[in-house]
Amino acid sequence: MTPFVKFMLGATAAVGLLAACGNGRLAQAVDNANSNNATSVSASAGGTDTISVAGRPIDIVRAPGSGPKPTFLVLHGGLSSADRFRAKVPIGDELAARGFNAAYLQGTQQFRRSDRATWNAGSCCGSAAEQNIDDVGYISQAINSLVSQGIAQRGRIYLIGHSNGAMMAYRYACSRPGDVQGVVAMSGPLLLGSCANAAGVRVAHIHGRRDSLVPVAGGGRGENLSGEDFPSVQDTISKMERAGAFVQVIILEGAEHEVGTVNAALQNERGQSIGAFAASFAQ
Fold first, then answer.
1. Contact (CB, 8 A) for 279 and 94
2. Residues 6+ positions from 17 with CB-CB distance below 8 Å
3. Starting at the edge strand that comes first in sequence, how are the strands of the sheet with 152-162 ordered?
4. Is 219 helix (H, G, I), strand (E, B) or coil?
5. Exposed, middle or buried: residue 242 (CB in 10 Å: 0-12, 13-18, 19+)?
6. Largest CA distance in the chain
7. CA gap 191, 153 in Å, rounded
8. Which residues pair with 109 in a beta bridge?
9. Which of 35, 164, 203, 223 could form an S-S bond across to 247 if both were Cys, CB 3.0 to 4.6 Å?
10. Distance (Å, rounded) from C-alpha 95 to C-alpha 278?
């Protein structure tokens, strides 16, 4: 049985496993990550803009003031979307209030639904992995477009992702370490067998102790999504450190897998929301 068939059989569990949410219009993902039809947008003093990269819309929440800003690329969880993620946890608004732009990227749609999308993080997940979508190339195009349009500041670009989005953030940092200065990874491990190079990349890995779907110790329901158990947090951190990354680990005692519980536990146990933590991490 192929990993994709296993994914389909485990779809009900996967919704709970990799869902992360956002709001606004439902963005439609297009499988072809190689076409580049980016459109320009005018600069604004705060607010929201939308650009298109590789046929996928990217919503941008801007910090006040003109000119390029330090920017977070936000990667939603599997079987979710940029809009649903933003509705659940207002990371972009919190970052903008602290002087950062936030760009919500969109994965490849699953089940022909634009509000259910996945990333090709290696052995996981769904349509993106099965079709071998070049999400590393897509994110690279997105960064170049954001820089060329005066939105993102080269040398101050960060990734923040949840679950499948965290897995994708790790893959990108290991593939193009010179593009990003830091990664905030929530509830998702590195799925690659090794990280070739992450020299100088700062990593904050946030995971819930009560996460039974992608457990801190590894295992979980990976067999329904990637054909194998998920790696442990320690396995991920060891690989990243061997590749030259600087790693901070936060285990939240009260958090489960879902991003809302991660946000609530981070506030309760650390006194910061995810957006506030990300901003302080990037200072």
1. yes
2. 78, 163, 213, 214, 220, 221, 224, 225, 257
3. 47-53, 56-62, 101-105, 69-75, 152-162, 182-186, 202-208, 246-252
4. strand
5. exposed
6. 53
7. 29
8. 117
9. 203
10. 8
The two tokens of residue 1 are: 């049985």
State yes or no: cis peptide before 125, omega within 30 of 0: yes
pLDDT, tens digit (0-9, with 9 covering 90-100), for 58-105: 999 999 999 999 999 999 999 889 999 999 999 999 999 999 999 999
Provide the token pair at 116. Answer: 């259910």
Question: How far is it, in rounded angstroms, from Cα 158 to Cα 4?
Answer: 30
Structure tokens at 139: 């994110």
Alpha-helical (H) ranges within 176-258 are 233-242
Tally of CA atoms within 13 A in the half-sphere of 231 that contains its CB: 21
User: Which parts of the chain are beta strand (E)?
Assistant: 47-53, 56-62, 69-75, 101-105, 108-110, 113-118, 152-162, 182-186, 202-208, 246-252
Question: Tokens for 152?
Answer: 């993102």
Global confidence as pTM = 0.84
SS3 67: coil
Residues 91, 266: Cα–Cα separation, whole Å:
13
From the list 147, 234, 225, the residue with the least C-alpha distance to 189 is 234
List, for residues 20-42, the tens digit of each pLDDT value: 333 222 222 222 223 333 333 33
Domains within the chain, CATH numbers bracketed: 3-281 (3.40.50.1820)
- Only one residue has tokens 């090794």, namely 194
